[in-house]
User: Which sequence fits this backbone?
């Protein structure tokens, strides 16, 4: 009887996903054996703290998480809490330069992917150095306006992986104490092709179909692409996707319609294959890649497509 | 015995210790950032519990034994740094679009130049990445700077005139 009770409770439970993106060989403290593995330590800590939660919660751990994993989890309607553990940098540099990066274990920046957080998400913890500063900046820019119930956690200081994870889970436990089982969903929302923040005001956007093909000079596998419009995530293509539907925010200014295809890879990256994009839309626009006079796309980890009006 | 162990531990810690920024550099295998020292304060608080027992003769009738427990909080990065996996990232610097009024005034940018610079910030950063990639194989610093200058001159032609002018003025301001 108790077995079936547990099973039924579990079926209604919320789901927490912890994504970590740390290379064990590069994240081993000094004077430790080669067998010391940060991912195993984080798994242990996660399970230890999860036992203390007062409500039944389904859980999943993804190590070596990439931008595609994060995008999928943030959009998954069954996932109501996401904990990200990875390296991050937030600083104002001297003069014109600034540093904003949340990187995966390969060094690819995926900070823009966090904008994919759906309206079903109740808890987002960013365990990385100065994670709170990112969350503050995103809130200020209105990235989570479509989800006023979202609780977030981050720290304003440099953060140790295990300590940060422990604090994120204890913060979740405190929220359970204050709010009850706030992660629980009465019904699971339907899956959405587009991003949740766009669907709340669909009239402000128009649809554009993206298609990417191999550049003539390259035949390696495609890289995953974050599609950005004025810094806002409007679409995502995993490394095996060649087509996507996106919603672009309407504007009279062609400059605002510019699209950035960003792999997140640093300028030192080699053998990236972003592909060449073509676009289809009912609106009178076309997009051309920003390139040198001899036809070479400008940029290393990202290519820029400038909008042109096709009306005479 | 406890005092002896405490003394050994503290002595070793002093031997290991160095300015906090150097510790960060070792621990994270990266250059220390300017604010790392301050930020470390959060990680470095340690509670030390000391227990001392004293025996004192109260009167002719006997002896009294008292135990004192004291708590001390000390700030000492070297203790904890060894086991930490700090999640920082030096990342890659980008050119930001937000210009302060002071920067605009000092660089003597007009309104068109400011707007063009902000509108083409993605293109400017893409150019910066490409130039950075193309000069990365040059070992000599001076040669690298010269090559970067040539490439900026060549590639700036793909930017609008106002944007290129703004970039030039701001770059000179940086010097």
Assistant:
């Amino acid at each position: 009887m108790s077995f079936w009770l547990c099973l039924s409770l579990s079926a209604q439970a919320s789901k927490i996903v912890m994504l970590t993106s740390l290379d064990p060989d590069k994240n081993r403290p000094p004077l430790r054996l080669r067998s010391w593995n940060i991912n195993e330590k984080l798994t242990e800590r996660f399970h230890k703290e999860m036992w203390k939660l007062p409500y039944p919660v389904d859980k999943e751990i993804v190590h070596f998480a990439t931008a595609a994993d994060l995008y999928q989890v943030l959009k998954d309607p069954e996932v109501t809490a996401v904990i990200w553990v990875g390296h991050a940098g937030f600083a104002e540099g001297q003069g014109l330069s600034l540093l904003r990066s949340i990187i995966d274990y390969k060094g690819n920046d995926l900070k823009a992917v966090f904008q994919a957080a759906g309206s079903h998400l109740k808890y987002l913890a960013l365990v990385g150095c100065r994670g709170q500063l990112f969350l503050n900046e995103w809130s200020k820019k209105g990235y989570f306006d479509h989800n006023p119930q979202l609780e977030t956690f981050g720290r304003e200081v440099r953060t140790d992986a295990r300590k940060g994870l422990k604090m994120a889970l204890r913060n979740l436990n405190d929220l359970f104490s204050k709010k009850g089982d706030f992660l629980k969903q009465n019904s699971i929302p339907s899956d959405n092709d587009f991003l949740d923040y766009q669907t709340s005001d669909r009239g402000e956007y128009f649809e554009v179909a993206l298609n990417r093909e191999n550049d003539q000079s390259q035949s390696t596998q495609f890289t995953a692409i974050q599609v950005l419009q004025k810094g806002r995530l409007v679409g995502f293509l995993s490394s095996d996707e060649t087509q996507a539907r996106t919603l672009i925010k309407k504007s009279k200014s062609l400059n605002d319609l510019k699209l950035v295809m960003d792999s997140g890879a640093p300028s030192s990256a080699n053998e990236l294959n972003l592909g060449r994009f073509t676009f289809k839309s009912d609106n009178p626009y076309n997009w051309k890649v920003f390139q040198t006079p001899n036809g070479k796309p400008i940029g290393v980890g990202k290519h820029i497509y400038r909008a042109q009006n096709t009306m005479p | 015995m406890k005092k002896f162990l405490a003394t050994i531990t503290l002595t070793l810690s002093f031997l290991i210790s160095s300015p906090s920024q150097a510790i960060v550099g070792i621990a994270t295998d990266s250059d220390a950032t300017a604010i790392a020292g301050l930020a470390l304060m959060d990680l470095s608080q340690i509670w030390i519990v000391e227990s001392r027992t004293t025996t004192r003769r109260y009167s002719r009738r006997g002896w009294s034994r008292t135990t004192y427990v004291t708590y001390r909080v000390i700030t000492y990065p070297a203790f904890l740094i060894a086991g930490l996996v700090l999640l920082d990232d030096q990342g890659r610097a980008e050119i930001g679009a937000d210009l302060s009024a002071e920067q605009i005034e000092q660089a003597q940018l007009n309104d068109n130049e400011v707007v063009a610079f902000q509108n083409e910030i993605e293109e400017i950063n893409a150019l910066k990445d490409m130039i950075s990639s193309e000069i990365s194989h040059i070992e000599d610093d001076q040669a690298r700077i010269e090559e970067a200058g040539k490439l900026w001159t060549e590639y700036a032609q793909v930017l609008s005139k106002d944007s290129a002018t703004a970039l030039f003025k701001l770059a000179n301001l940086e010097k």
